[in-house]
Design a protein that fits this description.
Structural class: alpha+beta
Order of helices and strands: HHEEHHEEHHEEHEEHEEHEEHEEH
Number of helices: 11
Shape: globular
Length: 234
Amino acid sequence: MELETEADSTDSSQSLKDNDEDDNNDITEQPQSCDDKPRPYVCTVCDKRFTAKWCLNRHGAVHTGEKWYSCTECEKRFAIKSYLIAHMNAHTSKYKCSECGKCFQDNRALTEHSRIHSGEKPFECEDCGKRFTMAGSLARHSRIHGGKKLYNCHMCGKAFNRSEHLHSHTRIHTGDKPYKCYVCSMTFTECQSLNRHLRVHTGDKPFQCQVCGKAFSESGTLNNHMRVHTGDKP
C-alpha cells in the first residue's frame, strides 16, 4: 500500500472539503451526480469511489487496520493524518472541560462530553422514546426499529447496521489480527476479544453473581451460573 507523498499532502490541504468527504468511515459507495467530480478510483473491498489515488490508498487503512500516524505525546496511532492533527488538540488543552478537566480534539466533542455532567439528552427516538446525548447514537439506535443494515460485506454478503462492525468482520476474510497481547503475544481480530483474553493473565473477574457473590471473568459464564439459582433449563 502506498503512503501519501509530500505532493499529495500539499494537494490534499488545498481540497479540505473533498478530504472531509473521503475521510468518512461510511464505506458504502457514494453516488456520482452531474455536479460531482469524477471518481475513477474504486476500492476493491467495498466499491467506494474516490477522486484521487492517494484518497483510495488512505481509505485502504479502513480495511487493513494500518495506522501510520503516531501521536508524539501519547503514542496513540491513526490511519489518517487529519485525525492525528485533530487529536493533538486534546494535548493543548484548547478544548477543556471545566467540570472534570478532560481535553478534547474539537468543540463538538467537548459539547457532547459536557452532557455527561449536565445529564442532557436532546435526541429522542420517535419509536420508543429512548433519549441520547449524540445524534449519531440516535441514528444507530433507530436502525433497530427499521431493521436496516446498511453496511454489506462485499466478500460474503453479510450485512451490519454499524460500519465499525463491518470493519471488524472484514478481518475474517483478510486474516488481519491487529490486537496483540503484551504478555504472550497472542493476536486477535477484535479489541473485545483481547480484553477477555487478558483476564487469563490478570485473573480479573469483573462479573459477580448478586445472589451468592461468586465472580466470573466473562458475562456469558455468569449468565449460565445464574441458572443454578433460577432453576432455568433452556
